[in-house]
């Protein structure tokens, strides 16, 4: 038997798991946005993406298609990658722009002024706020005094997937994410949260999480109405959690 | 009027439509947008209880009789507020215009309020049309869709100078209430089209106007809530919140209600069915009987009482639109605790 020289389909799916919907802060795979992914023996990968509506915001759609293209193209063994967004009002502009590596502004000539770095950073900051609630809520429920959170570092928190995620989002923004990094910081400035600002900070963290969860619930429902088959790697929300 | 457990609720549907989205109304060359829009709305309906779902055919074009039955006869609504959405680039006669709404509503005196709209990109002609609409339909409110496509433009901000000129004109014409509906596109496209910062500016600069943010700014509930705490003239339109979450995602619904009660408060939340996306009947019945799940994570949210529900379902909107509410539906003496609280 010869050694496997091309990335198998599983590898493509793993790569797509690293691509997130920037608004929902969830992998496009678990959201059900990956309609199909295939790879030929020669290393030609083809990915088809789908979204909950024909009118999902074109800037976020572009980011997902472009990120998927980058993730799949970077795989060893992939000779050529094609990522196609289906059934969207701006499919042609997005698919053509990503294939040509044109960037957002050139893909939407005359309709956009700049690229999407600022937009992405804004939503990473929201993800940090939501993640803050995810790691703080169990502590508060277990009786931790809110004021004690001010002095805590990330290394003092019990290990959890939510904590890993929070660290990763903070690192992406260039914010401290190591064991000695403070738990509560302003994601826009990196400055430590002070006592006077603590109640509002925790409240903002909580509503940001609620907002993202509610949006995710609606998007999943819309997607299910639009497509009756599960996406590749899709996970379904349990009714108790949603 | 809805009655439950001896309590009577005066119901104002603050957000509903009478549209024609059938193929006979699609603009040639823009069929894919007209079709995509109504299919997207239809998918929202899918978030309601299965027994309330319509076929796409029926959903594209329902009759006047359907509306009167669904909203008033079966749906408990006392007064309904038409919120027009034009989309004339996709629908020949518009999706649901002020004229279409009023033509129907005029046959049923006292049942409807006709909001109209403007698009700041329409220049002087648009200002004249706004004045004609206010004169003819007696509009006290506007519905603004900032993502509307217009001559190659994909949307506008409420803080644009052109929009301010229109808001001033509207105020001079006697308009009081501005319903703002955000959508997926804006100029320029690299900005977040759902951002509500422009409404914040407008609300500060037009303190005598009320700004009702439809579907509570979804998908930016958090941004909307921060703004609403700072601006006394900003209100929450509950369309989509009840219809889209109460049945499909009951836990998320409870959290969103809790957050709105905390940040915005029961005096500034307005029910809207978003008919024909969802019928009002199941939303009103379900909401009146609703309470937070009995779990710790909901324990520190402000209580949603019978009194809160009476305000949200009708009394708040009646206040904004000067709708006369018969005495038996008014809140009892403020000092008295309300049953079910």
Commentary on this structure:
The complex is a heterodimer of chains A (242) and B (341). Chain A has helices at residues 9-17, 58-73, 91-99, 104-107, 117-141, 146-149, 161-172, 198-226; strands spanning 20-21, 26-27, 34-39, 44-49, 80-85. Chain A is mostly helical and 242 residues long. Chain A folds into 2 domains: 9-107, Fe-S cluster assembly (FSCA) (GMP Synthetase, Chain A, domain 3), CATH 3.30.300.130; 117-225, no CATH class. In chain A, helix 2 (58-73) runs parallel beside helix 3. Chain A is globular and about 55 Å long. In chain A, 42% of the residues are buried. Chain B is an alpha/beta fold. Chain B has one domain: TIM Barrel (Alpha-Beta Barrel), CATH 3.20.20. In chain B, 38% of the residues lie in helices and 11% in strands. Chain B has helices at 31-45, 56-60, 64-73, 98-105, 123-137, 161-172, 197-205, 221-230, 241-246, 250-263, 280-288, 306-320; strands spanning 2-4, 7-9, 12-16, 79-82, 112-114, 141-145, 177-181, 210-213, 234-237, 269-270. Chain B has a 5-stranded parallel β-sheet. A 3-stranded parallel β-sheet of chain B has the order 3-4-5. Chain B starts with a strand and ends in a 21-residue tail after the last helix. In chain B, 52% of the residues are buried. Chains A and B meet through helix 5 and helix 8 of A and helix 1, helix 8 and helix 10 of B.
Map the helices and strands.
The complex is a heterodimer of chains A (242) and B (341).
Chain A: H1 9-17, E1 20-21, E2 26-27, E3 34-39, E4 44-49, H2 58-73, E5 80-85, H3 91-99, H4 104-107, H5 117-141, H6 146-149, H7 161-172, H8 198-226
Parallel strand pairs in A: 4-5
Antiparallel strand pairs in A: 1-2, 3-4
Chain B: E1 2-4, E2 7-9, E3 12-16, H1 31-45, H2 56-60, H3 64-73, E4 79-82, H4 98-105, E5 112-114, H5 123-137, E6 141-145, H6 161-172, E7 177-181, H7 197-205, E8 210-213, H8 221-230, E9 234-237, H9 241-246, H10 250-263, E10 269-270, H11 280-288, H12 306-320
Parallel strand pairs in B: 3-4, 4-5, 6-7, 7-8, 8-9, 9-10
Antiparallel strand pairs in B: 1-2
Helix pairs in contact in B: 5-6, 8-10
């Amino acid at each position: 038997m010869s050694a496997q020289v091309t990335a198998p389909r599983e590898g493509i799916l793993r790569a797509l798991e690293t691509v997130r919907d920037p608004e929902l802060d969830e992998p496009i795979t678990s959201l059900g946005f990956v309609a199909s992914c295939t790879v030929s023996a020669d290393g030609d990968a083809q990915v088809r993406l789908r979204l909950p509506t024909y009118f999902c915001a074109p800037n976020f759609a572009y980011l997902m298609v472009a990120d998927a293209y980058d993730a799949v193209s970077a795989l060893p063994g992939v000779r050529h990658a094609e990522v196609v967004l289906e059934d969207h009002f701006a499919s042609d502009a997005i698919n053509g722009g990503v294939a040509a590596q044109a960037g957002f502004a050139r893909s939407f000539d005359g309709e956009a002024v700049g690229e999407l770095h600022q937009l992405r950073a804004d939503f990473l900051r929201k993800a940090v706020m939501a993640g803050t609630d995810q790691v703080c809520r169990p502590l508060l429920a277990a009786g931790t005094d809110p004021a004690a959170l001010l002095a805590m570092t990330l290394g003092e928190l019990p290990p959890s997937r939510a904590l890993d995620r929070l660290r990763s989002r903070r690192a992406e923004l260039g914010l401290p994410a190591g064991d000695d990094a403070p738990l509560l910081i302003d994601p826009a400035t990196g400055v430590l949260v002070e006592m006077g600002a603590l109640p509002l900070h925790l409240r903002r963290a909580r509503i940001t999480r609620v907002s993202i969860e509610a949006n995710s619930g609606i998007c999943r429902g819309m997607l299910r109405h639009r497509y009756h088959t599960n996406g590749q790697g899709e996970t379904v929300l349990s009714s108790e959690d949603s | 009027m809805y009655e439950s457990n001896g309590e009577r609720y005066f119901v104002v549907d603050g957000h509903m439509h009478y549209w024609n989205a059938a193929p006979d109304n699609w603009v040639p060359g823009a069929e894919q947008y007209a079709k995509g829009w109504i299919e997207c709305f239809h998918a929202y309906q899918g978030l309601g209880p299965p027994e309330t779902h319509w076929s796409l055919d029926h959903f594209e074009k329902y009759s006047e009789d359907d509306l009167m039955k669904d909203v008033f006869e079966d749906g408990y609504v006392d007064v309904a507020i038409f919120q027009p959405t034009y989309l004339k680039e996709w629908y020949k006669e518009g999706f649901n215009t002020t004229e279409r709404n009023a033509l129907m509503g005029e046959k049923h005196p006292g049942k409807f309020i006709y909001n109209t709209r403007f698009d700041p990109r329409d220049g002087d002609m648009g200002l004249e049309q706004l004045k004609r609409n206010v004169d003819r339909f007696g509009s006290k409110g506007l519905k603004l869709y900032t993502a509307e496509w217009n001559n190659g433009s994909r949307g506008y901000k409420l803080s644009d100078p052109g929009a301010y000129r229109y808001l001033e004109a509207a105020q001079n014409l006697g308009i009081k209430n501005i319903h703002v509906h955000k959508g997926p596109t804006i100029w320029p496209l690299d900005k977040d089209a759902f951002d509500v910062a422009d409404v914040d500016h407008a609300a500060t600069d037009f303190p005598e106007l009320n700004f009702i943010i439809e579907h509570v700014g979804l998908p930016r509930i958090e941004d909307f809530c921060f703004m609403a705490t700072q601006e006394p003239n900003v209100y929450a339109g509950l369309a989509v919140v009840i219809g889209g979450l109460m049945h499909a995602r009951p836990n998320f619904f409870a959290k969103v209600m809790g957050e709105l009660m905390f940040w915005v408060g029961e005096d500034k939340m307005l029910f809207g069915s978003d008919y024909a996306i969802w019928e009002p009947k199941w939303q009103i019945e379900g909401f009146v009987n609703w309470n937070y799940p009995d779990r710790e994570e909901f324990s520190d949210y402000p209580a949603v009482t019978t009194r809160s529900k009476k305000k949200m379902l009708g009394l708040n909107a009646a206040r904004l639109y000067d709708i006369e509410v018969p005495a038996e539906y008014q809140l009892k003496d403020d000092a008295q605790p309300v049953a079910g609280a």
